[in-house]
Amino acid sequence: MGDISPKNLLFSLVPHEGVYFIDCDAMRINGVSALAQMETPGWERPAGEDLATIYSDAYKLGLLALRLLAGDHDTKNLQHLPASTPGLLRQVITDTLSNPSQQRPLPEAWSYVLGHAIEHAQHQKKTATPTATPVSVAPAPPPTPVVHSRPPVGSSAPPAPAPPPPYSTPPPPPAWAPPPPQRQPASPAKIWAGVGVAAAIIVIVAVIAITLATHNTSTPTSAPTTSSEPSAYPSDSYSTPTSSPNTPTASVPPPDLVQTPDSYGVNCSDGYHVGMNHSAWATNAGRGTDQTSCQFANNVLQAYWNTYHSPSRDSRQVIVGGAVPCPQVSANAVTPVPCSGNDFVMTCVANGDDPWITCTGGNNAKVYIY
Question: Biased-composition ranges for Pro residues (predicted)?
Answer without folding.
Answer: 158-183
